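Working notes for the structural subgroup meeting. M.R. asked for a predicted model of this chain before we commit to crystallization trials. I am recording the input and output together here so anyone reviewing the notebook later can reproduce the run.

Input as submitted:
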Amino acid sequence: MVSTYRNILKYLIAFLFVFAVSSRANAQDIAIKTNVLGDAMGSLNIGVECRLADRWTLDLSGHLDPWTRKDGSFRKHAFAQPEARWWFCDTFSGHFLGLHAHGGIFNVGGIDTQLNFLTNDFSVLNDSRFQGWFAGAGFAYGYDLILGRHWNLEFEIGAGYAYTRYDQFECQECGSVLAEDMTHHYIGITKAAISLVFLF
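Returned structure, recorded in token form:
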């Protein structure tokens, strides 16, 4: 599974690099960012955003978490999240609305929680392990705060839907399968970010 995460990260970084280099390189046309909320939770991430037209940008972010925590829990995942953004005034400044898609793979378990939200009972993560993939879409609202000539601080929250298909295992480390090829329809938060942004 770790080799799969490494390969995904390698291709994602290569794609982001090609995406940035092939885009227009004029001032305020390209931004590179990292979601510090994700960084704080151990999820490596990088994003690239480019201006397409007046008030329109395209943002692409990728996330990778291959770690097992000290308490034995893990939230291993790799996913990408492209987003089209419409800015209220100028690009990379002030309020914006976004429409995003997302897709990736996950392997999670041993997470001690009693959270139950909408159609999602996260307490099942306490004793079982879930491995599978997901895809979906959502809407978002955000705000870019200008810190300086090349630096912004970006806040964004989004909600939407994800279709998940997974196998459920009896415990975190064993291979005893409880259920195969299960599906779940997730409705809830699909994006939460406080990002440090560097503008070219």
